[in-house]
Amino acid sequence: MHRLDLTKMPRHVAIIMDGNGRWAKKKLRRRVFGHEEGAISAREIIRSCHKFGIPFLTLYAFSKENWQRPAMEVEAIWHLLKRFLISELPELIEKEVRLIHIGDADGIPPDVAEELRRVTDRTSGFSSLIVNLALNYGGRQEIVRAAAKLAEDAGNGKCLPGDITAESFARYLFTAHAPDPDLLIRTGGEQRVSNFLLWQIAYAEIYVTELYWPEFREPQLIEALLDYQSRERRFGKTGEQI
Ligand code: IPE
Ligand code: IPE
Ligand code: MG
């Protein structure tokens, strides 16, 4: 922790929590065991972000594409997510952490949706850390949904097509309440974004680690943050202008 520059912390960290299945395979265990261990990483990373004063954390937990996995795994993941929501609520309240769902509410199993509503309602007044939990989420679907809502507002005369800007468009996204991610972390080594926050990562610093998600805990987060702090973010300018 002491090596981190607290004046150069990212405001928003987004994580593609990948590699649970491969981690379990390496341990000669079932994939579900990897998801269980991954839930522990999620809990620890929430704690660490809170401790470091990072105001926004977005966790990619279940994508639109993940429905294509074997039914048994899909069921196990949703069951685990429900248990996670139940088990974490007391600590979220204690730390005044707000949990917000990003993604389609439609399609989430009803018992999980109920728990999700409970946690988001009970934590809605908090802001020490905002955790966006991406469930049944797809970046393209989010952009299309935003465009449809915007078209509806334009049709109703609530906005003029000529007045639409990148900023006003972003207000129709699930992440309207948050700044864009400064740091995008992907565990599991894949160099792709897998339909995650396509609009919002326009200028995110990308950090890919070969470590599997169950292996990613506070020391590994610190490594990622140190790497982030060593980067020069130019936003199109020259190095001399920074
Ligand atoms: C990430 O781990 C968790 C989810 C996508 C739900 P994976 O289950 O994708 O693990 P790998 O990539 O197969 O190792
Ligand atoms: C991305 O991981 C989705 C989540 C972490 C929830 P995947 O394992 O589904 O991504 P791909 O299939 O390797 O692109
Ligand atoms: Mg994967």
Describe the structure.
Helix content is 42%, strand content 15%. It is α/β, with parallel strands linked by helices. Strands 3-4-2-1-5-6 form a 6-stranded parallel β-sheet, with helices on both faces. Helix 2 packs parallel to helix 3 and helix 3 (71-95) runs parallel beside helix 4. The longest helix has 25 residues, at 71-95. The model has no long low-confidence stretch (mean pLDDT 97). Bound molecules: 3-methylbut-3-enyl trihydrogen diphosphate (IPE) (2 copies) and magnesium ion. The site of magnesium ion has 2 residues, from loops.
What small molecules does this complex bind? 3-methylbut-3-enyl trihydrogen diphosphate, magnesium ion
Q: Compute the average pLDDT.
A: 97
Catalogue the unreliable spans: none
> Which series of helices and strands comes N to C?
EHHEHEHEHHEEH
Q: Report the structural category.
A: alpha/beta
Strand order of the largest sheet: 3-4-2-1-5-6
Main beta sheet: 6 strands, parallel
The number of helices is 7
Based on Cα principal axes, name the global outline.
Answer: globular
Helix content: 40-55%
Structure at a glance:
The protein has 242 residues and is α/β, with parallel strands linked by helices. Helices cover 42% and strands 15% of the residues.
